[in-house]
Structure of Serine/threonine protein phosphatase:
Amino acid sequence: MWSVGQRSETGYVRSENQDRMSWIRAPACDVFVVSDGMGGHAGGALAAQLTVQTLQERLSGMTSVEDAGATLERAFQAANEAVYERGQTGSAATARMGATAVALLAAGPRIMLAHVGDSRAYRLTRGGVLERLTKDHSLVQRMVDAGMLTEAQAADHPDSSVLERAMGQAPRVEVEVSAWRPMRAGEVCMLCSDGLCGYVGDDEIAAVMRGGQQPQDMADQLVRLALERGGEDNVTVQVLQCNSGGSLLRRWLSRSALARFGIGVPVVIAALWLGWSGVLSNRSSQGNRADGAPASASLGSVPAAVPSAPAPAAATAGALPSPIEARVAALERDARNDAAEHRARDASLAQQIESLTARIDQLDRKASAPSAASTPATSRARKPAKSAKKPEQQASTVAASASTPASTSPAPAAAESQRTPPSEPVEAAP
C-alpha cells in the first residue's frame, strides 16, 4: 500500500547526528517516527533514541486500530516518561535533555498523526497542493497564530528555535493527536526534522514532491536542498507514497523474506494460482453429487436400460455375469476409486497451500521484526571546500529502523547550535 524513502544526514556544523527515525510494521498498520534530540553533549542523541525506542516497543504490537488515538497517546506518555526519568539522574551530560517527535500510523488508505515539538508532517494531494499536517509547538508559531508575525517573519525570527513542548521536560507532556485522514492513491506524505523545514521553504518542498519521483529520490533531493543551505543542523526526511490497492499483494510478497531465499514473486503467485485453480476445478466437476464422484466417471454415462436389461434366454442361475454387467461393475469401482483419489488430492493440496501461507507469514514477521532504535545508518556529510558552490550529495540511505550514522571522517571543528528547552528560552546560536 505504501512506498517509502528515507534519509538522514549530520550536516556540516554539528559533530553528531542527534536525529532518530524508525519504520516498523505492526500487525494492524505501519508506524513511522522521526525524533530530533536537543541538549548538550550526548543528551540530545540519547533523548531521541529513547523516544523512538519506546514508541517502537509500544506500537509494534498493535493488532487493531479501533482505539489508535488512545494507543498513540499512551505510547507518547511512556516515551516522555523514559526521557524525563533519564534526565533526572544528576548527570551533566543528560541534564535538561529532550526531543521532539512526530509519528504517523498508516492503516490501509488512511493515516493518523501524533506529535510534540516542531518536527513536521506534510501531505501532497493529487491536485498538487502541499498541506502542513502538524502545527509547531513553538514560541514563534504561537506568535503567528496571534497575528503578531507572518510565516515569513517567523522563519527568520531569533526565537524560532524556542519550543513550548518537548519530550522529557516534565513528568507528562501534552500530545497533539489527529483524527484519521483518508489518503488517495498517488498522494504523498513526508515527515521531517526542523533541519529540513527550518532551511527549505514550503514552496521548495512542494516543488520536489510534485516532481513525480520515487519516494527515495524525493527524500534524497530534500536532504540535499537542506545541505545546500549550509547544513547547519541535522536533517532527517521520510517520504511515504500511497499506492493503489491492486499492488498490495505484489509489494507484500516483494518485501517479505521470500526474496532472501531466492523465491521470486511470479513463482509464488503462479504456485498459488495453479493450486487453487486445481481445487476449484475438482470441486466444480463434482457439482452437487452426494458421493463426490467426478462427472466423467459417473454411471450416468451408461445407458439407463443396461442395468435393468433382462438376462439372455440361455442364462441359468449359475451363469457368469454378462459382459455389460461386468463393465457396469468395473465402472462403479473406478468411480469410487477416482472419488477417493480426488478427495485425497484435494486435502493434500489444501494442506500444502496452508503450509505455504503459514511459512510466508512466518518469514515476513521475522523479516519485519522491530529492531532497537538507534541513529540512522548514514555517512556523515563533510563540509565542502570554499570554492565549491554546492555541497556534494552524500550517497547514503537510511535503514528501515533507526541506526547510528557511520563516521567516515572527523567532523569539522565548529560550535554546535543547540535548541532551547521549553522552560528556559534563550537565543539559538546562529
Observations:
- The domain at 2-243 is CATH 3.60.40.10 (Phosphatase 2c; domain 1).
- The longest helix spans residues 323-367.
